Amino acid sequence: MPKTLQEQLDHVEREIEQHIEFDKTEKTRFDRESHLWTAEDRIEWQETQSDNAQTLRELFEVRDALRGQLGQQSRSRMLRQVEKEQEEALTESTKTPGARLCSREPR
Questions:
Q1: Is residue 61 part of a domain?
Q2: Mean pLDDT of 3-11
Q3: Model confidence at 55: pLDDT above 60
Q4: Residue ranges making up the domain that contains 19
Q5: pLDDT at residue 31 above 70?
Q6: pLDDT exceeds 60 at position 12
Q7: pLDDT value at position 94?
Q8: Residue 70, in any domain of the structure
């Protein structure tokens, strides 16, 4: 199983693509051959389509959850970067000769 969230997301998206491709292929086969099928064949095909649709719904939920987690990680990283830059800017301003920190004193 992939280790990072991005790898997991990539894996799930590949699975989604495979299931969608399978669905298209099966629908094409149905259009081409279904007039030759028995009632049992049609029922089996419908069950397969139903199972595939359920699997796709589950994969979409997993994909959405992973995207949400990746978004949270990205936001956390961005906030840490902004905090680091602010800290560096503050440190640099205190190192600069002649620089003064602004303070408001009551009058």
A1: yes
A2: 92
A3: yes
A4: 5-92
A5: yes
A6: yes
A7: 56
A8: yes
**Domain-located, residue 102:** no
Inside any domain, residue 101: no
Closest CA to 26 of 51, 61, 1, 6: 51
CA dist 20 → 2, 26, 27, 59, 94 (Å): 22, 10, 11, 11, 59
Listed range (8-22, 59-73, 76-90) with the worst mean pLDDT: 76-90
Secondary structure (DSSP) of the chain:
---SHHHHHHHHHHHHHHHHHHHHHHHHHHHHHGGG--HHHHHHHHHHHHHHHHHHHHHHHHHHHHHHHHHHHHHHHHHHHHHHHHHHHHHHHHHSTT---------
Contact 15, 60 (CB under 8 A): no
Q: In the chain, how many domains are there?
A: 1
Two structure tokens written together for 57: 């719904």
